[in-house]
Amino acid sequence: MAGMDWLWNALGAKKGRNQKQSKKIVAEATTVADDLAALSDAELAEYTRENVDVKPAFLAALSVASTRTIGLTPFAVQSQATLRLLDGDVIHMATGEGKTLVGAMAATGFALKGKRVHLITVNDYLAERDATWMRPLVEFFGLSVAFITEKSTREERIAAYKADIIYGPVNEIGFDVLRDQLIVRREDAVQHGADIAIVDEADSVLVDEALVPLVLAGSVPGTAPQGHITDIVRGLKAGKHYTVDADGRNAFLTDEGAAVVEKALGIDSLYSEEHVGTTLVHVNLALHAQALLQRDVHYIVRDGKVQLIDASKGRVADLQRWPDGIQAAVEAKEGLDVTEGGRILDSMTLQALIGRYPTVCGMTGTAVEATDQLREFYNLRVSVIDRAEPLRRFDEADRIYATAEEKMNAVVEDVLERHATGQPILIGTHDVAESEQLAEAIREYDIDVNVLNAKNDAEEATIIAEAGDVGRITVSTQMAGRGTDIKLGGADESEHDKVVELGGLCVIGTGRYKSSRLDNQLRGRAGRQGDPGYAVFYVSLEDELILSGGDGESVTAHPGPDGLIEEKRIQDFVEHCQRVTEGQLLEIHSQTWKYSKLLADQRVIIDERRATILDTEKALEDFRERAPQRVAELEGTVDHDVLVQAAREVMLYHLDMGWSDHLALMDEVRESIHLRAIARETPLTEFHRIAVREFKSLVNRAVDEAVETFTTVLIDADGAHLDDLGLSRPSATWTYMVGDNPLEKKTGRFIQGVTDIFR
Ligand code: ADP
Ligand code: MG
């Protein structure tokens, strides 16, 4: 990829200096490794511990240990990459170059220095696979390694988090953080802190999914369904009764639309004091479900249930729900039973989760393209690692067609032609509906097609592992099977040479993605470890990217008879549309983060407060100040430790419920901020003003309520009987991830809004 140096330089990624330095160290390590070969295992482990800070010696020892334990001798580029991780960078290292081993070597390095490492993966399957695969290497040095998955029990998690190196999917690690933020006894905590996060598929976690909130909810009877509002909204017409903004993220009633709804409901005004917080919210939710969420694009209906499709992965996301209102609105739209709601107890974005680690580093095949985001949001640098073997993949220029139909016909034709030779083909689509359509079109010719939009990462991995076999056609959405190697000639490589002769794996994209980074992810599936390969993208001028990125600009093209456009000018235009979209995404990310950041900072303040209450007798002392008589009374009858714990539970109950109320309120504010914002203030400013004000009152209120409860609740040898007052904690909790939360993307002044009201 030497030809891309200009791009790396332009993006400010590091290539030159560090690469040179680390190459020198790795060369030294190679000589040291020869001397170490004679050592026994125990001697080698001892030698490593003594030389953790001597880079060549340390790398040499890792290399020898890796050969002995897992049978992989690290390539020089893997050792270089390990050094860059240990320096806290995100490494750009192509697919199939062996990042799993790199991550394990770096984790071992950190752990040998006494740090606890979370190795963060994108799913359960990879956490288990990588921990199991790398275990012998880690254990060789007397370190412990563990993994967690969605299936892990509480006890298993407690044990796993004690290990030196823990592999876990990002959402499960986040859910454990959320649950730990609600404990009432310190010993109930599942996690025990971590010093380092090594993030695999770093661009996916840190950029694409960064603002996905992880949610912890508790059981509460459901909110009322809104059947007849749904029916009224169903009758509204786009453009007449409502408008959808250009990027499809918000829908608004027009005056005419509002009038229709008001008439049908028999009310004066949706915007009156009486209806603005209730009826209007329901109408907006129904409109959102109706106008913005499309069946088979954003969700599917299966077994009488709405199942979300993860936008960036294009797959069914099993445990996901939308925020309650939207979920209920979609269920109502589809005529399904509206499921019971819950109370959101806490939530946290992946970006906030990652922000908790003192040190973050990561690895991905496409880091360079995310340089701006990694710097802006995480202050991380990118280090580019060369390939072990030169790239032998041929990337063809886009094939651009006038219409979507002509494009799809051309894709099918191309697939048929290539398939006739036996060349394996992997097709990347944009959503589930498109995958299904394309697979159907190919199956009409009596050809087998594997479609990846599976429910199960392990199943998906098995299918994708075979995608390089002779005659295979695999249709996949964006993220499907990420992390699994596509070997030529099948997973056992039995037909390897034949597939090499056929040109290796052919990758076809059915349209440019929203960023060139995602395009490159797909391309990277072909040409691994010096294999031959081929990649091409098909584009039509009707693609969403072109329509929105081109912002309605009219382009005159001169297509050939089959619709193919071969003008350089149009190729440039496609690039332009993608760059515009990338810019918009970055802007949305910045803006959205400004909303989330304040709440994340407020959550930190709450959690610090919780820590004091958990670890000290502060709660009882506070009550002693505010209700001295009651404390004196109880001290006569109840054991001191019991009383401390009772005070703690009372205080935490009100603090936690207060926080939960705060989140609900701020969610509502965020939804309706464009209605509330007054002319002279931007929505963001207004949001911050309200958030700061409400946070102050939340804390004061929580303390007042706690004092009230403490003076009235029965406290005996069994502790505080909060249940008697109907103040029990939710008996069941569950967790889920929310899809993209659309926000206002107007720029606004950012107000530093966190006040430390606990001092
Ligand atoms: P990546 O995460 O970079 O896409 P993986 O870690 O999944 O790559 O590894 C891809 C393949 O390369 C695996 O089959 C692995 O066994 C192989 N591999 C990795 N390192 C080495 C090595 N040093 N020697 C031989 N094979 C290796
Ligand atoms: Mg990988």
TrEMBL record:
Organism: Corynebacterium pyruviciproducens ATCC BAA-1742
Alphabetized UniProt keyword annotations: ATP-binding, Cell membrane, Cytoplasm, Membrane, Nucleotide-binding, Protein transport, Translocase, Translocation, Transport
Described function: Part of the Sec protein translocase complex. Interacts with the SecYEG preprotein conducting channel. Has a central role in coupling the hydrolysis of ATP to the transfer of proteins into and across the cell membrane, serving as an ATP-driven molecular motor driving the stepwise translocation of polypeptide chains across the membrane.
InterPro entries, per the entry: Helicase_ATP-bd, Helicase_C-like, P-loop_NTPase, SecA, SecA_Actinobact-type, SecA_CS, SecA_DEAD, SecA_motor_DEAD
Membrane topology: Peripheral membrane protein
GO cellular component: cell envelope Sec protein transport complex; cytosol; plasma membrane
Location of the Helicase C-terminal domain: 403-581
Start and end residues of each Helicase ATP-binding domain: 80-242
Boundaries of every SecA family profile domain copy: 4-577
Binding site for ATP: Q78, G96, E97, G98, K99, T100, D485
UniProt similarity note: Belongs to the SecA family.
Protein name: Protein translocase subunit SecA
Assembly: Monomer and homodimer. Part of the essential Sec protein translocation apparatus which comprises SecA, SecYEG and auxiliary proteins SecDF. Other proteins may also be involved.
Enzyme class: translocase
Stored PROSITE patterns: HELICASE_ATP_BIND_1, HELICASE_CTER, SECA, SECA_MOTOR_DEAD
